[in-house]
Amino acid sequence: xxxxxxxxxxxxxxxxxxxxxxxxxxxxxxxxxxxxxxxxxxxxxxxxxxxxxxxxxxxxxxxxxxxxxxxxxxxxxxxxxxxxxxxxxxxxxxxxxxxxxxxxxxxxxxxxxxxxxxxxxxxxxxxxxxxxxxxxxxxxxxxxxxxxxxxxxxxxxxxxxxxxxxxxxxxxxxxxxxxxxxxxxxxxxxxxxxxxxxxxxxxxxxxxxxxxxxxxxxxxxxxxxxxxxxxxxxxxxxxxxxxxxxxxxxxxxxxxxxxxxxxxxxxxxxxxxxxxxxxxxxxxxxxxxxxxxxxxxxxxxxxxxxxxxxxxxxxxxxxxx
Length: 321
Ligand code: UT7
Hints:
The chain is 31% helix and 25% strand. By secondary structure, it is of the alpha+beta class. The chain folds into 2 domains: 2-170, 3-Layer(aba) Sandwich (Peroxisomal Thiolase, Chain A, domain 1), CATH 3.40.47; 174-320, Peroxisomal Thiolase, Chain A, domain 1. α3 (50-65) packs across α4 and α6 (213-235) crosses α7. The model has no long low-confidence stretch (mean pLDDT 97). The site of oxa(dethia)-CoA has 20 residues, from α2 and α6.
């Protein structure tokens, strides 16, 4: 038994910010950003919330699948930028879309969050607990990014994507791996609240995202190809037979490095980061939705999804569309 993606959806904030516009905020240039990252613009919230974007993406995924919200049994939202600690974003999305009978909760594995949520849904269905799930990745990173730090503010974007999955007997998710290395968590971090109560008042250590970009870059180029090979080995599908590699959209040079290590042509690595930047857990489902709506995903195609990011977390999923 497995799960198959039946519908996809996505939502982006209305405002798109070009690299040129960022030169008014920090000492950077369109050339530098394009050359080092491949990013040309990103969407930034001017009022859209994580919940409003994620709810919209979920509604579109259900519409695309031809299913109703009250049929959903499990609703997972992967995010590292929720509006609230409680209630969780998934419960707020549940209320917004009317997924009355769904069990809803959040999952944070940063940029690998959507992938880990997809794997969790697989496990629930495989165990016979649920027969369908709505899985979203959403971020409003613009509120946790330091807009004076040129090393990070040029990278990130806001948005949400979602997939609706149902249990299937053939095809769908064929195999996956997921890994975490908490010993390397310091290279990409952002605090929530500092410890403050009547007995202690500690300052906040890392109010905004802080990242050692070079370390994350090296980690991704080394570990992602390894995890893709590991996931493919579980399915006996050779790398040559994979039609598309839908990777986390962090930096086009990372994608080029991964393609090279896998000896796979870049044409099999779709990219949208030039228009949306790095949207962390939203990156993979938004790209999947774009490909789906462009008609580039045909039933029977073999896809590899792979995400990596803070934690450090990383993994890969092999599926038949
Ligand atoms: O989703 C997962 C999380 N994040 C990532 O995947 C990010 C992974 N890392 C990266 O994408 C890259 O490391 C960055 C794009 C963040 C940086 O690119 P880089 O080629 O690794 O640059 P660098 O950090 O080695 O910096 C090179 C130079 C430095 O100047 P000096 O010290 O050589 O004088 C930086 O200060 O570029 C400078 N720099 C910039 N210059 C213009 C850093 N950011 C900028 C900028 N504009 N925005």
